[in-house]
Amino acid sequence: MDENIFGNTRFWRKVLDISASGLMVTDRNGILIFVNDSFCEIHGVIEKDVVGKHVTDVIENTRMHIVAETGTPEIDEIQSINGHEIVVSRTPIIEDDQCVGVVGKIRFLDFTEVRKLTWKIARLEEKIKKADLKHPDTKYTFSSLVAVSKLGRKSMETGIKAASSRATVLLLGESGVGKEVFAHSIHNMSTRSGGPFIRLNCSAIQESLFESELFGYVEGAFTGAKKGGKKGKFELAHNGTILLDEIGDMPLNIQAKLLRVIQEKEIDKVGGEKISNIDVRIVAATNKNLEQEVANGKFRGDLFYRLNVLPINIPPLRERRSDIPVLTDLIWNDLKKEYGIYHKNLNPDAIDVLYNHDWPGNIRELRNILERVMILVSQETINGEHIRTLLEVQQTEMKCKFSEGCDLQTLISQTEKNAICQALLVSNDNRSEAARKLGISRALLYKKMHKYNIMKGKVD
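User: That's the sequence. What structure does it adopt?
Assistant: Structure tokens below.
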């Protein structure tokens, strides 16, 4: 390309002719100093005849000279030219706080174009609303998911593909990774989005009640049965989706009955003789290794293969650390609205500590820590030390909770240590204030800090 072309006046003239319809420029007095070819075509004039004239002598109903006087832009205004409504913009050229000229251009020659564009925008907005529509029984859609990391994006893309099918989905991942968010999103994006979404936590039901919870019962089926009977979860989920959460905890005898439901697409209530056909999409979720459970005889292999049609592995936070800052920002803003606390913020050191923590409890743990920080720390700026302290307090709580050797005295000591750390944290390491909050003397506080190796709210 000839480098001198950019200094060629004819070149820039062509650029201006192509770039804008009806382009014109006036000076500060409203005198036309430039018009492009399309301006001449639209208004039926010759350039040499109009340049140098006042704009009001060339265009009816113009306000170019008024914009030159006021310096106030007028964008996408309707103007009538020869009986036709067009859409124009008038933009002042400002130099040293003074208007030295105005650029005018036609945005739409025919108002029909505006109506078409408005119609297209309305249709696009409607599509967005439908794509993000939540069923009353659900809270989340795929727009609720954070997927900056490669692994996060892969899981979400698999979920979106799964939503468009009718196949059974198996959500695999550690506790707190967001399996229920995926289940809601799959339902809301599926063809069943208008149907019910029913959740059953398999780890929270007594074995003796499993069958009646899943399949329902008829009146008089057993002592204490409700008059008129009761619908089971599968019947309630007809034409919709059922989430079988923590399916790895389902008893073996119920697994056999579930397998029959999947194969035959029919249920029979406890105490009943009538078989009912059902149309339910199953989404199962677990934090267990079901293949290992099958090998150990704790889960039926035939059921596993029926459930494992579309497996989605949701990675833990420690494997998708780039999602942590975005998740933190979303959760923090959500907590601000929930508690009405808008003046507190996390500094970069706090974000760095969150980024580098392993998060064994994943998103659920992250939210828990952020909620504690927001409530307990009185300072407007949350730093890394605040986060570290609460993480250490949480870890000591968990160690004692799950340790077989955690007797009453150990539990009391751990609780006392955590209380001192949190008191120092909310007091910004003011020992006198911390002692008052704990209801002990300052001397006793120092003694206990020495006993537990606590320095500035931190467990050493």
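The first helix runs from residue 9 to 19.
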